[in-house]
Design goal:
This protein has about 250 residues and is mainly beta. The protein has one domain: Neuraminidase. Helix content is about 0%, strand content about 45%. The protein is built from no helices and 16 strands. The strands form 5 sheets. Strands 3-4-5-6 form a 4-stranded antiparallel beta sheet, with no helix packed on it. It has a 4-stranded antiparallel beta sheet with strand order 7-8-9-10, with no helix packed on it. Strands 11-12-13-14 form a 4-stranded antiparallel beta sheet, with no helix packed on it. The protein is globular and about 80 Å long.
Length: about 250
């Protein structure tokens, strides 16, 4: 898990008569127990992309075998996580969407839900939001058509079925369209449209602390609810707490 720290290395693989071995090992990023470096992937023969939380947030980083140096993808860190814990193997929080490997789409966590960003790896820029983005959770990004601005991912919504989604950009920074390749809906649920409570993310002050407490509120919206027999009584409130990591 990223909070345990990770060390990322690159090396040359040699195939000899006695077997395979590595040489020219070089430490790229990460520190055991303190800094993580996760989701490494070669986007070109010379460019390795990964995310690291050295800034306090999981942001994209780039390593070049030409310069033999690693650098952040952005001019300054973004206070959002561009990857999450690897609860399962095989997923990816980003996908290449051009033939040169310069343009990558990342999923990040912002405001209580996932968002999509387009990232140019050639410069020290800022992430460009891909909007609209009607999904709550997004994972397992994968290139769809090599050389074209298309990718697929797994997604879910708060007010409808999710599934396997194909995203196509009409241009590298133009309008976006979504197509459901496989839906999670197997039959008509029968629920009326207004019965689902949409999530409302917010930040609450913590007494005697400078930090804020992130919360997600689901207000009651059931149109069939006629109220309590007790005058002035409000709907019940159910609280769920995730302790997270305290620093």
């Amino acid at each position: 898990m990223p909070w345990e720290g990770t060390e990322l290395y690159v090396a040359d693989v040699v195939n000899s008569e006695s077997g395979f071995y590595v040489t020219n090992t070089k430490h790229i990023a990460g520190k055991k127990l303190y800094i993580s470096a996760v989701y490494p992937s070669w986007v070109t023969n010379n460019t390795l992309v990964f995310t690291s939380d050295v800034s306090g947030y999981q942001n994209p980083w780039i390593y070049s075998t030409i310069t033999q140096t690693a650098r952040p993808a952005f001019a300054s860190h973004v206070s959002e996580d561009f990857s999450g814990p690897q609860w399962v193997l095989g997923g990816s929080p980003y996908a290449v969407i051009d033939a040169s490997g310069d343009t990558v789409v990342f999923v990040a966590f912002s405001g209580g839900h996932n968002v999509l960003y387009q990232v140019d790896l050639r410069g020290w820029g800022t992430p460009i939001p891909i909007t609209p983005c009607p999904f709550v959770t997004i994972s397992s990004l994968c290139q769809f058509t090599p050389g074209k601005p298309e990718f697929v991912f797994l997604a879910s919504k708060s007010d409808g079925p999710g599934g396997i989604i194909q995203c196509t950009l009409s241009s590298w920074i133009g309008p976006v369209t979504y197509k459901t390749l496989k839906s999670t809906q197997t039959s008509d649920s029968g629920f009326p449209a207004g019965i689902i409570s949409p999530p409302c993310p917010s930040m609450l002050p913590i007494p005697n602390e400078e930090n804020l407490l992130p919360v997600v509120l689901y207000r009651p919206t059931n149109p069939a609810y006629e109220g309590s027999s007790i005058p002035g009584e409000k709907p019940p409130c159910v609280l769920n707490v995730h302790g997270g990591k305290h620093t």
